[in-house]
Design a protein that fits this description.
43% of the residues lie in helices and 16% in strands. It is an alpha/beta fold. It folds into two domains: 3-167 and 353-370, Rossmann fold (3-Layer(aba) Sandwich), CATH 3.40.50.2000; 170-349, Rossmann fold, CATH 3.40.50.2000. It has a seven-stranded parallel beta sheet, sandwiched between helices. α10 (285-292) links the parallel β11 (273-276) and β12. α7 (207-220) packs parallel to α8 and α10 packs across α13. The relative contact order is 0.12.
Length: 371
């Protein structure tokens, strides 16, 4: 057995935070032999689940993607005499003094460089992903599609990549009681039918086309339907705000910002459908969460989504606004289609388990520690 360090400083980030929180919780439940050192920020501690006695928290105040983390984390890793360092995203500190495993969720920065704040961000991402592939003992991709993208961009390191799918938090398989649903309605002032989107507002999420499609749909239906967006805030995206103003949708779009998983579970249950026309996903957890909650899903037919969602979602070309609008209308009006996708979705969601994912990581840890 060994001493394993894990960087959890992004545990409050959307998406990767869910990944870190669930894996750490499963490691604590499944493994009492290895010793775990969790590098966190002071404000991260409240997000952590209850952990076993073999877990130790070590505060590191360096910011993700900063120069400081390349000195601060390796210095602590050396002082603590780590046997293995696990980076749950693509940045492996340059001076890491021990063997390492790195998860690369996607290569979106390299495929959509136009969405980055400056060219330096592209070169940093490319260098750090390449270095992780060259230096880590194992590299994990979260889908076969993401693995294929990494292999295309870095063909010299293809043999180091293994695929471990993400899981779904068991909380989303629970049906909220009527009182809980009523509290959620009151909390968010929801007294209308709505289509739900969950995620950040980055350009690859394709919110602009979803807004255009929603405007078309509203022109074909009676008033009252709204689009609810959880996880992102309107004032963080000028592009989204401009599209809403241009389409005169100001009163029909609700931005809820961050919501916790209890509230999110209620929103999935209350929604008429879940719409996710993303242009690129390394995995794509939100549509699976919606499926676990019994909500019919419309999703893009690009990147990892067909692999992850199978035949349990209504797939559309995310570049075709008319097709997105037609699919939303189908899911709202075609009862047999809704019921069939709800049935398939429930089965598809059951295929993804954080316990299974954690067990696969533990096998990797053991293999690397044994070398």
């Amino acid at each position: 057995m060994g001493k394993i360090g894990i960087d959890i400083r992004k545990i409050k980030d959307y998406g990767i935070g869910t990944y870190i929180e669930n894996l750490i919780g499963q490691f604590s439940r499944l493994d009492s032999d290895n010793q775990y050192i969790l590098f966190c920020r002071p404000q991260d501690m409240e997000a952590l689940p209850q952990l076993g006695e073999n877990f130790q928290l070590v505060v590191d105040n360096s910011a993700p993607y900063s120069l400081a983390e390349h000195f601060s984390l390796p210095r602590k890793a050396k002082r603590l005499n780590l046997d293995l360092y696990f980076a749950p995203h693509y940045v492996l500190p340059l001076l890491t003094p021990c063997r390492a495993i790195v998860t690369i969720h996607d290569v979106i920065h390299l495929l959509f460089p136009e969405n980055l704040p400056h060219k330096g961000a592209y070169y940093y991402a490319r260098f750090m992903i390449g270095r992780a592939l060259a230096k880590a003992e194992r590299v994990v991709a979260v889908s076969h599609h993401s693995s294929a993208d990494i292999r295309k961009l870095f063909p010299n390191h293809a043999g180091r990549i293994e695929v471990i799918h993400n899981g779904i938090d068991p909380h989303f398989f629970r049906h909220p009681g009527e009182d809980e649903l009523l509290r959620a309605k009151g909390r968010f002032h929801i007294d209308y039918p709505f289509i739900l989107f969950v995620g950040n507002l980055k350009p690859h999420k394709n919110l602009t086309n979803l807004l255009k499609a929603f405007a078309l749909l509203r022109g074909r239906r009676e008033r009252g339907l709204k689009l609810v967006i959880a996880g992102g805030e309107r004032d963080k995206s000028a592009q989204i705000s401009e599209a809403i103003d241009r389409l005169s949708l100001g009163a029909e779009i609700r931005f809820l910002g961050y919501v916790n998983k209890e509230e999110l579970c209620c929103l999935y249950h209350l929604a008429e459908l879940f719409a996710f026309p993303s242009l690129y996903e390394g995995f794509g957890l939100p549509p699976l969460e919606a499926m676990a909650c019994g909500t019919p899903v419309l999703a893009s037919n690009l990147s990892s989504l067909p692999e992850v969602l199978g035949d349990a979602a209504l797939m559309v070309n995310p570049h075709q606004v008319e097709k997105i609008a037609e699919a939303m209308q189908q899911l709202m009006e075609n009862k047999p289609l809704r019921e069939e996708l709800i049935r398939r979705g429930a089965q598809q969601a059951k295929r993804y388990s954080w316990e299974e994912a954690a067990r696969k990581y533990l096998v990797l840890f053991a293999q690397v520690l044994a070398r």
